[in-house]
Amino acid sequence: MQAYMGPLENQFNYRPSSGHCVYFIGIGGIGMSAIARILINEGCVVTGSDVRSSSLTSTLEKMGARINIKQDGSFMTSKTDVVVVSSAISEDNPDLKTARKLGIKVVKYSQILGSLMKEKRGIAISGTHGKTTTSAMISTILKTSGLDPTFVIGGEVPDIGGNSHLGKGNLFVAEACEYDRSFLNLAPQIGVITNIEEDHLDYYENIEKIIHAFGDFASLISKEGLLVVNNNDANVALAIQRAHCKVETYSLENASDWRGEIHSVNDGVTRFKIFRKDTFFDEFLLKIPGAHNVLNALAATAVCTYIGVEKDAMKAALASFNGANRRFQIVGVRKDVTIIDDYAHHPTEISVTLRAARGLYPGKRIWCVFQPHQYSRTRHLLKGFSRSFQNADKVIFADIYAARDSEYERAAMNSMKLCEETRAMGVDVRYIPHLCDITKELSFQVKPGDVVITMGAGDVGKVAYDLVSNLG
Q1: How many CB atoms are closer than 10 A to CB 445?
Q2: Under CATH, which architecture does the 21-109 domain have?
């Protein structure tokens, strides 16, 4: 387990400039690829490595990046100016060992992100859940309003060009991840905290240390800036006690600076009213499902109002917002079977996503294919996971997708244990280890009218796309 450290003494100030050769270890990661795209557009020479090819690495190669689908140290040269690593890269990685041997400067992804943000007016969106969609909403509003922001988002957003963009405007929107306290490398003038729950316990150990880290984040917002927070979260209330800036709250339940009131949900379209300090602000609509997305829209509205975006521009952008990939993404409809892919990998995310699916598809049989992400997360949150599948009719668990897991964690937990705990909660659940076998089983078992949702932060989305192909 990694040691928990106190507040950072100072922030990192290096950033690559045009002509610098930058090597990314794990370049196919969603955040790493986003920064790589920005640096290519700024004139840097980008190279890197990953363990597999993907649409993200293909996009980078088309932009001019040279990528090695190995991490064996063979692709890095002494001409490299700086090496960027994600939090998933360990010290025994051959590429990283080569960089150390050659004496090349090694920096974290979040440090480069923080250095880029300092050059503009930074907007950092944090939280255990919802930060990708909220970041995407804010970026979409700003871009369609003509403000041309730079943004780095933890998911692909096709409507605005992907997971990153180098804008000419003075705004920089970034999804701020709390793992490894990496969000403390940022320098935001505007911040968002969507919620705070137990997660990344392989690093933080307990909720108190998580709240403390978010308190550090809240204290980073400049005194002249704004912090927008969920007003229905006791952990958030504790964290923001250390904020030095103006704080605005949002909620669906409590009296808040920004309060949402859902008016109707029909054919997947949610209509809701927004009240600002109990005064009617306007009526909005979203075509992505779930009350949790109305909360995300409230946060985005608060931020963009503060920036000065016109109300009608916000309404239009949110009404046309299609969401980020892997956030309740409808992959296809074949033989009257609806196939959806979602990134949910925490008990709360699973629960709210299945609740949204049940509301959107009343009376239909819902299949959930879940690939747990990390042995340690599965072990720490086992009881929560077992209670999160109540709105699914049929559940299938795949093997756990390993990430940063020690041998101890791999030995202590497996999907069969999760299956047994979930079955004890009255859920119809099966354990099928391999994704290819899950696809085959679904191909035989699904019936017209069924809804299939694949869930997880690993590669479980393959099942959704392969099932569309098999049923086609």
Answers
A1: 12
A2: 3-Layer(aba) Sandwich (3.40)
**How many residues are present in the chain?**
472
Which two tokens mark 12? 């990192």
Q: Can you say which residues are annotated as belonging to the binding site? A: 127-133
Give residue-wise pLDDT tens across range 424-458: 999 999 999 999 999 999 999 999 999 999 999 99
From the list 131, 194, 249, 439, the catalytic residue is 131
DSSP-derived 3-state class of residue 450: coil
**Active-site residue flag, 131:** yes
Known binding positions for ATP: 127-133
pLDDT 10s digits, 344-393: 999 999 999 999 999 999 999 999 999 999 999 999 999 999 999 999 99
Yes or no: domain 118-319 corresponds to CATH 3.40.1190.10: yes
Tell me if residue 310 is catalytic: no
Q: Which residue has the tokens 């944090």?
A: 126
For the chain, helix (H) and strand (E) counts, in that order, are: 17, 21
**CATH class for the region spanning 329-471:** alpha beta
Q: Which candidate in 175, 178, 198, 409 is catalytic?
A: 175
pLDDT tens readout for residues 113-152: 999 999 999 999 999 999 999 999 999 999 999 999 999 9
- pTM, rounded to two decimals: 0.92
Q: Where are the domains of the chain?
A: 21-109, 118-319, 329-471
348 flagged as catalytic: no
